[in-house]
From TrEMBL:
SUPFAM superfamilies: Bacterial exopeptidase dimerisation domain, Zn-dependent exopeptidases
Record-level Gene Ontology MF annotations: hydrolase activity; metal ion binding
This protein's name: Peptidase M20 dimerisation domain-containing protein
Organism encoding this protein: Secundilactobacillus collinoides (Lactobacillus collinoides)
Keywords from the UniProt entry: Manganese, Metal-binding
Manner of cofactor binding, per the entry note: The Mn(2+) ion enhances activity.
List of residues binding Mn(2+): C91, H93, E127, H151, H344
Cofactor dependency: Mn(2+)
Top-level taxonomic group: Bacteria
Length: 373
């Protein structure tokens, strides 16, 4: 099918250049959303804005099944670069948006090639891992039979002119915790309950967490703060712990052991309180969606262009759509584009012509999707 797909490559570059130089942080993507709406208006594609946040959902079709979703993230990162603080698209969301706009333009002109209804999700706040759940909770998306996402990949994971049919993102969870104890003079520590002792004990218990698996996982204390004076036993402190696991079941087990460790330390005047947590689920492999994406990749890049998924320690809130049961089948295209030196690095570069292949792959994925009741 690839040879029949005609793209306006100049428009893709125009979209990219505009978005690339106007990054906005999570839930502040006001100008980005306005530009996306303008472009969709030009195509004659209808869309629905959210009531209380940035982003939008565009629809091509009349609700006929299968309902096929395609999601792009739209936010950027605030980073120091070239001597000043800037908001940069160092994670490639500008390219993702440009690709999905190209998909919208193609199917706006060729709606008969959609085997059902296409919903294009321009989602805010991926970088804070909060946008997907807000989209779901808005009620504007509804149920999807299939959902496709995409991400540009670093060169050390996927080379240019190659792609993977799933990005095997891991589950991540960060706990924000407060430890309270009892203050005392540093010369009479036995009269107090030192939260630093509580930190030390808990950190050792975290290091002892073990799962029965050969798959990678980790529990790491990443932030710690306690005390304001060198001659006082501190009675309050805060810390953060980062949990990572290859699967969601593994994350559940890590969480259970971490909770038990916190409970075990809450003795002898020390109290551990969980203040909050940030969570992003692992990818949930879907054979129907992966098979479709594999065929789409092969149609565009040839059989040699389809590669095995590269191991990654990254996460993406895209996977909430499957985790929360909104998308029956889903997968993310991992697009090789010779990206260096890496994602989230200010000044990162990639082969921008890879966006043309990315758009063709995503168009093929839609065309090749078949309904599964």
């Amino acid at each position: 099918m690839e040879e029949t797909i005609k793209l306006d490559e100049q428009q893709i570059m125009t979209d990219f250049n505009y978005l690339h130089t106007r990054g906005e942080t999570a839930f502040n993507e006001t100008n980005t959303t306005a530009y996306l709406a303008k472009r969709l208006d030009e195509m004659g594609v209808s869309y629905d804005r959210f009531d209380d946040m940035t982003g939008l959902i565009a629809t091509i079709g009349d609700g006929t099944k299968p309902i096929i979703g395609m999601r792009t993230d739209i936010d950027a990162l605030k980073q120091d670069y070239q001597g000043k603080t800037q908001v940069l698209h160092s994670c490639g969301h500008d390219s993702h948006m440009s690709i999905v706009l190209a998909v919208a333009a193609y199917f706006a002109a060729n709606p008969d090639q959609i085997p059902g209804t296409l919903k294009l999700i321009f989602q805010p706040a991926e970088e804070t891992v909060t946008g997907a759940e807000k989209v779901i909770k808005s009620g504007k998306l509804g149920q999807l039979d299939y959902l496709y996402g995409l991400h540009v990949c670093a060169k050390n994971e996927v080379l240019g002119k190659h792609a993977e049919a799933i990005i095997p993102d891991i589950a991540t969870r960060t706990y924000w915790v407060t430890i309270t104890g009892k203050t005392a003079h540093a010369g009479r520590p036995e009269l107090g309950a030192n939260v630093i002792d509580g930190f030390s004990s808990l950190n050792e218990k975290f290091k002892q967490i073990k799962l029965t698996t050969d798959l990678p996982y980790s529990v790491t204390t990443t932030m710690i703060h306690a005390g304001e004076s060198s001659n006082i036993v501190p009675d309050k402190g805060t810390f953060a712990v980062d949990l990572r696991a290859r699967t969601n079941d593994m994350m559940d087990e890590l969480q259970a052991q971490a909770f038990q460790a916190m409970k075990d330390v809450s003795v002898n005047g020390i109290q551990v309180t969980l203040d909050g947590n940030d969570f992003s689920p692992a990818a949930i492999p879907s054979k129907p969606a992966m098979d479709t994406m594999s065929r789409a990749i092969t149609a565009v890049l040839g059989a040699d262009g389809l590669v095995e998924p590269a191991p990654t320690q990254g996460g993406d809130d895209f996977h909430f759509y499957a985790y929360d049961g909104v998308a029956k089948e889903s997968t993310m295209l991992g697009l090789g584009c010779d990206l260096t030196p890496g994602l989230h690095v200010p000044g990162m570069t990639f082969d921008r012509s890879a966006m043309f292949d990315g758009a063709k792959i995503m168009i093929n994925a839609v065309q090749m999707t078949t309904y599964r009741a």
